[in-house]
C-alpha cells in the first residue's frame, strides 16, 4: 500500500464551480477549502476555477452536485464528446431522502444528479448509504467521503479577545431563529451570516467567536453539518451541535458539544457561564487532530483502482 500512496503525489484535482449556481459559491468555500487541504496533504496538486474545466485527461475535474438549467445536458454532452480527456467526479453533500432539498418537489435535482452520475467517473458522498440508492447512483462508482483534520484548514484568525459569544455560520432559518433570539434576549452577542457573506468577513466573524452554533435547518433534518464541525474543531472553536441521535455521524459528535434541540439554549448558557469555551475549543481541537487525520482518510480513497490511470 505504501507504494500506491507514493504515486498519489502525481494526481491533479481541479475543482470547477461553473455548474454551481452563483449564489452558492461562497457558501461552499469551507467544504472546497477543507477537501483541497486534505488533497494537498496527500501530495496532490489542487486548482480551483469558477468557469473552466481542464481537458486532456491529466487533471481530475470535481463538480459539487447542484446541477440546474443547462448544466446537466452540457456536462453529459461534453463527457460523451471528450471521453477520457474529461475525467470527472461528483462531490455529493446532501441526503437523497431530504424532502427540503432532494426529493418531493425537489425531485428534479435528484434526477439531474442521476443523469450526470451516469457519465461520471466516480461519486464521493458525505452521507452514508448513498450508494444504496441504486435508482440514482451506481454503487460501483461511489465512495464515502468522511472528513477529518488538516492543519492547512486552520485558517481562522483567532482574536485574543472574542467579542461574539455565538456565531451561526449559515442562514437564520425559522427553526433556528427562536434559539438565536433567546440567546440575544439573554444578553449574548449572537451573529449569523448569509450566502453572500464574503470569505474574508466570514473568517473574521469566526475568529471573533467563542462558540459556533450548529442547528438543523428544518424539522425533518436528520444530519449535522460535518463541514461546520470540522471548521470549529480544526480552529479550536467549540461547536454546539444539535444531536440527531443517528449512527451515521456519531464519530463527528466526539469533537463537539452535542446537545438536544429542546435544551439547546440552556447548554449554550452553561458553556458561557460555567465553563471555559476557549479551553473547551482547544481540547476538542487536540482530540480531533490526534484521532482523525484527513490525510489517512484520503490516502485510502485515492488508493482505489479507479485512480490507477492517474498514477503514471
Description:
The protein is an alpha/beta fold and 312 residues long. Mean pLDDT is 94; it is low at 1-8. The radius of gyration is 20 Å and the shape is globular. Helix 3 packs parallel to helix 4 (107-119). It folds into two domains: 2-148 and 293-310, Rossmann fold (3-Layer(aba) Sandwich), CATH 3.40.50; 155-291, Rossmann fold, CATH 3.40.50. Strand 9 (209-214), helix 7 (226-234) and strand 10 form a beta-alpha-beta unit. It is built from eleven helices and eleven strands.
The unreliable regions are: 1-8
CATH topology call of the largest domain:
Rossmann fold
Q: Mind describing the biggest β-sheet?
A: 6 strands, parallel
Order of helices and strands: HEHEEHEHEEEHEHEHEHEHHH
Total individual domains: 2
Count the helices. How many?
11
Mean pLDDT: 94
Strand content: 15-25%
**Spatial separation of the terminal alpha carbons:** 16 Å
How does CATH name the architecture of the largest domain? 3-Layer(aba) Sandwich
Task: Going across the biggest sheet, name each strand in turn.
Answer: 2-1-3-4-5-6
Shape: globular
